[in-house]
Write a structure and sequence with these properties.
Layout (H helix, E strand, L loop, with lengths): L13 H16 L14 H37 L13 H9 L8 H25 L16 H7 L13
Helix pairs in contact: 2-3, 2-4
């Protein structure tokens, strides 16, 4: 019975592995231009800017809406919890409560509540931005393409006309 010896594979050092890893990262960061006809421009950076803008705007809008509704809910709860309030005999003045909720200077929310609302709106805005990223179609940078259609003359030149054999004249 023969025993085969297996060669030991030398492992590269940690420094070499991390160096090559960083080299791959930084080599992909440098800007390269591709010479060619009608290449699309790099839209990835532009799409990142748009997604960031959408995230910030939607976060701000969501923050304002949440602050108003949370403040209205707090004021409604304060109205209900007053001593002597009875659902059967008294009505809640919704318009008055909503007008007070919009006036945040007179009826401010506690700071902890504002931080919680800010975090929720931040996550909601960036969640919407991520959803937009996955919903849009990515176009590969440097993908060649033409901006015009092929003309009939070019098609006739590339594909010669095959004679039509339907007209058989057997005499």
């Amino acid at each position: 019975m023969k025993v085969r010896k297996v060669k030991k594979v030398k492992r590269t050092s940690f420094i070499k592995r991390t160096g090559s890893f960083f080299k791959q990262i930084f080599s992909s960061l440098k800007k390269e231009t591709i010479d060619g006809a009608n290449l699309p421009d790099n839209r990835e950076e532009h799409q990142k800017d748009i997604r960031l803008f959408v995230a910030v705007v939607s976060s701000m809008a969501l923050f304002i809406v949440l602050v108003i509704f949370v403040n209205a809910g707090r004021l409604t709860f304060q109205t209900i919890s007053r001593p002597g309030f009875n659902f059967f005999t008294q009505k809640i003045d919704d318009e008055k409560i909503f007008a007070q909720a919009i006036n945040i200077a007179q009826n401010p929310l506690p700071f902890k509540w504002l931080i919680g609302i800010f975090v929720i709106s931040f996550l909601g805005g960036f969640g919407l931005s991520k959803r937009l990223k996955f919903a849009t179609k990515d176009v590969a940078y440097g993908q060649k393409g033409d901006e015009r259609f092929t003309t009939e003359k070019e098609l006739e030149k590339q594909y010669p006309i095959i004679p039509d054999h339907d007209d058989r004249s057997d005499e």
